[in-house]
Design a protein that fits this description.
about 130 residues, little secondary structure, Leucine-rich repeat, LRR (right-handed beta-alpha superhelix), 5-stranded parallel beta sheet, 3 helices, globular
Length: about 130
Amino acid sequence: MPDSGLHALNPLGGLRSLTVPRQIGDAAMPFLSELDGLRELILSGSRVTDAGPAHLHELPFLTELDLGATAITDQGLAQLAALPLRRLALRDSLVSLEGLRALREALPRCRVEPEESEGCPWRPPTVGRLV
């Protein structure tokens, strides 16, 4: 599914949870931002980068976000501080330990994964995970 294919979800404004396909990238984010009822968004393993989260501020009820195994870095985290997140997964992303610490300060009510002691070690995908 190309990024623009997500516009087909627009009539589903009441959708509360969504897991996007791996091939989805930043160009899909404007379409996702129109699903203003979303509470959980799983972008794990997608092609989302630091530019993608800029559109998430349009999701006022988003409380769970999974950005694991994406190209998100410390720079992209700043856009998440204004969201009402309760859980944020960043495993296998490009976020540094300093980025995790700053995010925890900005979002004190949010459970940020992984634990600080684990960091976000990036691991290249296995052959079976490539899409």
